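Blinded run. Sample ID left blank on purpose so nobody reads anything into the name before looking at the predicted structure. Input follows.
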Amino acid sequence: MNKEIVIALLMVLVVSCQKKDMLYYITVEDSNIMNCYNQAPIIIPICNEKDSVYCCTLPRDFYYRVGIYLFTEEEFSKMLYKRMVENDFIRVSDSVFMEMENEEEIVKEDEEVLKIYKTQGILKVLEKYTNQYGKIPYKETPMDRINYIYYLAFINHIYFYWDDEGGPGYFLDHTILKQIKKENEEN
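Blinded prediction complete.
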């Protein structure tokens, strides 16, 4: 009996480490590849003097927007990763905060999406709002809703990736698409 518990705990640990490694990969490794255009959107906790929010942006874009050139992009990415794992808010200037608001990068709660998420889970949200290739249709979907879907996926360790061939756009990994399809077949 104890052996089974130890094996179960090891499996949980392995899965947890894989998810953390994926976040590290998309935040640090992927963002530091020269001429890398396949970055995944990430959710970053930011604040200014008056407010705190989550923003949805690319690691490299955030580095250039914040403009802390005392650090290399790799050093910045590692610090960013650490702050994201700890859910530690990053103080930005009012001008950067407003710029991110104007660029529609602030995550705002979407009641329709939240209702589906609370009652049916993240896979149902992704099924409803992505096409058969795992892409959120940008022309038909408001940016606030897209950011909120990215946020919900992100907190569930589900990441979108860039692909020029299928879009261009951000797509879900094929393993998540298989999970959605399997869940549909079971229902």
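Unblinding after everyone has recorded impressions. The first helix runs from residue 2 to 29.
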